Amino acid sequence: MSVVVYHYAGCSTCRKARKFLKEVGIEAVLIDLKAAPPSAERIAELHAASGLPVKRFFNTSGQSYRGGGFKDKLPGMSEAQACAALAADGMLIKRPILVVDGESTAVRVGFREPDWRTALTLNLEVSP
What we know:
By secondary structure, the chain is α+β, with helices and mostly antiparallel strands.
């Protein structure tokens, strides 16, 4: 079983998520979204595993989203186009993203402690 967190070091929400993982004793592989954004294929896998609309993977409050006009572009984009755009600019990606591979794969976009606790408990038997 493994835990991967896609994050951005300068993001306060990502810092809270990393602090939470440390508090519950989970060591995660950290991947910097700006330095090493996931491929379009990986984003498509995460999207499929999450069950969320692809729009939830976009950092709608970020400069890349606003500057790129994605508010108007996104509704007309295919999933493949959206994944390609996310892969091309890691700052477009909503962060952090938690990926827990265990008996099942759990993907959480954004940090909400109760959701992360649930994902970790179901896959790694971490006490809440």
